[in-house]
Amino acid sequence: MGTIASSKNVKLIIGVISGFNKLFDNVEDDLISRFGSIDYESGLIQFTFTDYYKYEMGSGLLRKFFSFERLIQPDDIADIKRTTNELEGGYSASNKFSVKRPINIDPGYLELSKLVLASTKDFSHRIYLRNGIYAEVTLLYKKGDFCSLEWTYPDYKTKEYICFFQKVRAIYEQQLKK
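Above: the chain's sequence. Below: its structure in token form.
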């Protein structure tokens, strides 16, 4: 029988997609007020990997990732996903934008061995957490690099994304040594 142990703290990351540049600054402030200081962020990355969001969000979409200084417990991700969904809903309900869904906010966490994303959608490779939230391992970290899986989204396989996750992992590794 294995010994039950507490989980290690993990690194919160949040990916944001929008076609409205001004929203990235607004949502950054909203995220900081809820989750604390950002210790690393990507630049704006063109999001051209799928038309999945086109109907709700329009075209010309960009993505930006944020990494947060304060570490979280892995099971916090369910509540964080609900919080980011509420935040998204607020932007949609404002009716200040020409699209139904002006922003997409997707939280996840990074630990030394993997990247995990939260979702409201069930699928064969996702595990139910609680309150309508699921989680999936999106990338594994093996032999010094992130490796994709059969279900990894195409954009998460790109060098730009992997480079961001490598840098965040290095920050996280230093945090664990403190």
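The chain has a mean pLDDT of 95.
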